[in-house]
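In this section we walk through a basic example: taking a raw amino acid sequence and producing a predicted 3D structure, encoded as discrete structure tokens. The instruction is simple. Fold the sequence below.
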Amino acid sequence: MSSPASQQVDSPSNHGPIVGVMTWFLLAATVCAVIARVATKLAISKRFTSDDFLIFAALGLSIGQGVVVTLQIGSGLGKHADTLSAPQLDRFDKFDYASNLLFIVNLCSAKVSVLQMLRTITPIKLHVRMVLGVGLFTLLWSLASEFVAAFHCSIPEPWQVTGNRCIDRTAFWNAYGVLNLITEAALLGLPLIIVWKIQTKLKKKVVIFLCFASRIVVLGAIIGQLVYQNRAAGTNDRTFEMWPVVLTAQTVQSLSIITACIPCLKPFLESLESGMLRTDLRRRGMNGAYGYGSHNLTNLSARSNGKRERPQVASNASAGKHYKLPNNISTVVSVNRNEDAERDSDSQKSSARIIKYTRTFSVE
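The resulting token sequence is shown next.
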């Protein structure tokens, strides 16, 4: 069954059809991006994570908003207000109200999905705190914006703009747009900081960052939305002047979801796996229990068939240091500095230290 917008032709006095066509085109592209993300995840990890479920939620909200916008077109979006009846104008306000509420939640879901992905791939605590900070700000800002959008006009009909007491809607949406730009800038900056610490080749770093940097197109769409939004401010012909605002809003939300799916494509995941695995091993293995740059082995413990061993001493032949280990483990750590060892450009000269780690167990 064709939509109301598809039964009409775009004209200087009716821009509803172009909004309808572009809305469903963007929605189709969004669905394709999410399907590609799902296929990649199933092929690689065979499971979904919290960032995937957030994208699924955003997609569902986009589909819902696409339906609402189609109904809004049928109620006069893109047409001059003086050609519409009072019931049509009332329905237009209701659909505009519902569309705005869905838009805020949709963007929040897509942004938090990206932040959740960043949180899970970085092993550095400072980066995790930064991601959580941006995520908390995004949630609180979106919650406050949703509340204001829900009650921007007096009840019992908060959707009714004409003849009702309302806040300065232009000022509110301008403030929302500015904070939207700020959070998008954070979603561009955080990956750069995180990727810079990945122990991999510069070429791979650039590829990984560019996957996240694709969100720069969202910034452009938000700026366009703000421009058209201010052009339509204070107009008495809302149904006609609002069509580019609605179209740019659809573009913003669709691009937000599509660009959130790009980092999940297989080439990116392969680059990320090789680089982040090395970073994670250095953090957990070398700087932690296995003592890279440190010889603190007192936290090591193990059991062998429930039997205990006699206290053993581990010696570092090169450094001349001894370490007393738990009763049930005998471990020898030796560090040999090899100045002639071949250096790997991806490991930041970590091959200058060759660590030999030997663990022995005895069963009585």
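Looking at the output, two observations stand out. The CA atoms of residues 337 and 353 lie 5 Å apart. The longest helix spans residues 86-121. In the next section we compare this with other chains.
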